[in-house]
Amino acid sequence: MTEKIALITGANKGLGYETAAQLGRRGVTVLVGARSAERGEKAAASLCDEGIDASHVPLDVTDEDSVAAAARRVESAHGRLDILVNNAGIAMGDGDGNTSSLTVATARQVFETNVLGVVSVTNAFLPLIRRSEAGRIVMVSSEVGSIATMLRTDTPEPIPALQPGAYGASKSALNALTVSYAKEFRDSSIKVNAVTPGYTATDINGHQGWRTVEQGAAVLVEMALIGPDGPTGAFRHDGTIEFLDSDGAVPW
Ligand SMILES: NC(=O)c1ccc[n+]([C@@H]2O[C@H](COP(=O)([O-])OP(=O)(O)OC[C@H]3O[C@@H](n4cnc5c(N)ncnc54)[C@H](OP(=O)(O)O)[C@@H]3O)[C@@H](O)[C@H]2O)c1
């Protein structure tokens, strides 16, 4: 197997786009998962302009027909998938932002994308990932999904007062799914890990994050490219988030 093939969901902008760019620069063929044809084609064209082997795969993670069509498209074009980065995500709240103001409709939308979308995409692509010599699945979680971190009072602002809400709960659920998949595949060559990019300046937070997309995407890329001795069932950061362990471990 000469080159790796990676699908990144929500790769038309933000951390997903940067991950596609960093993987592409390392010689990986990148499939730009994006729900908007216009945004997806534009992102793929911009990566191609850099000399990266990139193409758009239409993919709305909340639409099972779209997910199934994407898997068929990748199967007919490439026959397998080596790397899946479950990156697409949304963050929403209601009213004053307190959890007591959260509507079920909002919570459902967040879980549909951040949790059920991951199950849908992962399970649809697993037959293709099983055909890889060394499949890698990266779950893009958050320290907001780390219950241990959310209970700390000694972290930098805005974390101490931050309520995890639907977003944090969805990422905690994603962490649980990561462990579940990792246990299922522990006797295979497939590795499944959760990562947090740290608080990164993107549209999801109105560019309030204190890290750049280049910094944030680094751990997504690192976990996408781990070798046979790399971890599975782990929750990692890039080792530079100062209130987390410098060895890269994030508490669950
Ligand atoms: N930025 C941070 O501080 C931070 C910290 C921890 C974790 N994360 C996680 O990192 C991931 C990427 O977020 P980001 O910061 O790069 O935010 P972003 O710039 O808002 O990008 C989110 C991406 O997800 C896509 N998306 C949303 N719903 C989708 C759907 N139903 N189907 C397909 N794609 C969908 C968006 O596509 P459209 O353009 O079509 O909306 C966009 O490409 C998320 O999972 C987020 O939770 C971010």
TrEMBL record:
CDD domains: carb_red_PTCR-like_SDR_c (cd05324)
Keyword terms, alphabetized: NADP, Oxidoreductase
A Pfam family annotated for this UniProt entry: adh_short
Family: Belongs to the short-chain dehydrogenases/reductases (SDR) family.
Protein name, per record: SDR family oxidoreductase
UniProt source species: Salininema proteolyticum
Taxon lineage: Bacteria, Bacillati, Actinomycetota, Actinomycetes, Glycomycetales
